[in-house]
Amino acid sequence: MAVVRPFKAIRPTSELASKVAALPYDVMSSEEARQMVVGNPYSFLHVDKAEIDLDPSIDHYSKVVYEKARDNLNKMIADGVYIQDEKPCFYLYKQVMDGRAQVGIVGCASIDDYINNVIKKHELTRADKEEDRVNHVDYCNANTGPIFLTYKARKEINAIVEKTMAKAPVYDFVADGVQNTVWVIDDAQDIEVIGKEFVAAGNLYIADGHHRCASAARVGKMRREQNPGYTGEEEFNYFLAVLFPDEQLHIMDYNRVVKDLNGMSDEEFLAELGKKFYIKEYCGEGQYRPENKHNFGMYLNDKWYILTAHGDIYDANDPVDQLDVSILQNNVLAPMLGIQDPRTDSRIDFIGGIRGLVELEKRVHEGMKVAFAMYPTSIEELIAIADAGKIMPPKSTWFEPKLMSGLFVHQL
Prior knowledge:
- It is built from 13 helices and 21 strands.
- A hairpin with a 2-residue loop joins strand 9 and strand 10.
- Strands 1, 4, 5, 6, 8, 9, 10, 11 and 12 form a nine-stranded mixed β-sheet that branches. It has a six-stranded antiparallel β-sheet with strand order 15-17-16-19-14-18, sandwiched between helices.
- The chain has helices at 17-20, 30-36, 45-48, 63-78, 111-115, 127-140, 155-165, 188-201, 210-226, 266-273, 324-333, 358-365, 379-387; strands at residues 4-5, 10-12, 82-84, 90-97, 100-110, 119-120, 142-143, 147-151, 171-175, 178-185, 204-208, 238-245, 251-252, 254-258, 277-281, 295-300, 303-309, 348-352, 370-373, 398-399, 410-411.
- The longest helix is centred in the middle third of the chain and has 17 residues, at 210-226.
- By secondary structure, the protein is α+β, with helices and mostly antiparallel strands.
């Protein structure tokens, strides 16, 4: 039984929406962000990565960065870059990438649902990243980046979505090859139905944004301590989210590159691999992309190999152990290559599938030793793991397209 409610969004004017909208803060470096905002004072990166407006030597986690984010946001509101709707609304956010569409409801989810596991998780968070977003939200007094949630599709919500999309949108623009279109849902009956449908839907699932979600809940709890007479209706009890039906989501591969073979020669490494995988040299054109679960591509010494896991090296009945990312971690990365904690080990790096498999070859030629191409984790696997109360290995899922930040701000 999930609570999702409408809110009075602070959002850019129609004329400036395409200039304000920016990719999430955590998909680019600060230097890349500095380049991306050249000539665009409206970019939301001035809020989400405010260090770009300060001296490059500044500590990205210092108080002055969060103060700058707050000041930049307040200035955009004061200058009329942003408007605020007069009454609480839901919003419809459609993205089209490579001909595939996903359409989500924009609203506010409950921090209590997060705390009580009605909103289910599948990843651990890192304390430093969580603390960064806690400070950012607290200083800005707003959720600035939406959390990407999913739910099991509901016919009644689908019907409202179809009806709404027949109307004129408030935003419609292309950014980074993705079409972004937004509608306002302000009909009282539609708002009521959407709220009831999410209650009936039961659980919600974090697809992307575990750190933003954890930090939003922490800020909400901080505000409760500061306001002991709180009623539960205050905006700080809720956080900004976009909720997509599970049937529309697309997860891409999340690939791995490793710096060395942990002291082994190529021949020794292949011999060890052969104890747990069927190995075949790939003779086709270009790179090898895995075609099925438990099937991997490996790039080593300018050659692509096809690896297929032996059936006895994983538990097919365990939703986590049977994941391809788990099979690789438990049978190759940890025991053979000595990478016990991929979240902190500097010898491993992760390449989102959006960059293509040619990026794996490039990274190996630039100093890494071996690359692994993964078969994508499915949304069904994600939900099964979350329902089982288990945690995926780090970097198991790469969602595309990314939700643009800056189109909706939820003030606390």
